Amino acid sequence: MQKPKLIAAGVVVAVAVAAGVWALVATGDEPDAGRPAASAGPTDPAGVLRAAAGRVDEQTYKLTLSSGGTSGGDGTVVLWDPGAKRGLETTSLKVPSGEVKIERLTTGPDVYVRVSAPDRRVPVWDGKTWWHVGAPGSPLTNKGLDNTRLAGTVSAATDVRQTGAREYAGTLDLRQSAGVLGEGVGGVLGDRAGAVPFTAAVDEQGRLVRYRIELASRESQVAQLDLTYSDFGLPVSADPPAADVVGEDPPANIPGV
Question: Which domains occur in the chain, in start order?
Fold first, then answer.
C-alpha cells in the first residue's frame, strides 16, 4: 500500500472569519426620514475578499478541493455546517491497486475517521470501523489541512488587484497560518510562505466561490490547491456512528492520529 499523498485530510472545528457587512441599500432616491442611510460593503479588493471569506460560514456549503489537476484523480469533498460544527469530509486517493477512501466525520464534540482500502493488508482500514480520534482542534485532529478554515487565509492577502468581473489575484502571507495549513504544507512552502500567489472569485451574493493557492511542491515545480465552494444552504447530516462500529484508541496508521 502506498503512503497516502499530501492532500487535505482534517475536518475540524470551523472558526469565525472577520466578515464585512453587506448592507441592504434603500430602494428610494433618499433614505426614509429618521433612518440612517445603509452602509455599503467594502469596495477595495482586499476588503471584498475578506468579506467574501466570512460569508462562506453564514450557511452550510459544499467544498470541493483538488490540487489543480496534478493529483491523478485525488480529491476531497467536504459537506459542512459551520454553525453546528458538523459535517463529513471524504478524501479519495488513487493507488496502483485501486482507491483509498478516507472519511472524516465531525459531529460537533467528536471526530471519527473511517478508511477503506482496495486490499486488506492493513486490517484497520476495513471500511467499517469509525475510529474515534478525539475532539475538533485537539492535538490528534490538528495535524493536516483544516479545510473548514481555508477560506480564512484570504485575510492574509496582500497586493490584491481585481482582474475581472468579481475576480481577484494577489499574494498571501501564510507565515501565521500554520494552524490552518498543517505541518506538511508549511514545510512545502518554506521561505515562500510570505508571498504565495493566489486567485479568487466571488459570486453575486458576495461569497467566495473559487480560490486557488499556488503551492510549490518541489524545486522548479508548482502545484495548486484549488477550492470551489458551492451548494450553499444544502442539508448536512452528521450523526455519531453506531456504538458497535466505533473503535477507541486508534492506531497510528489512522489519518489524524
Answer: 47-247 (2.50.20.20)
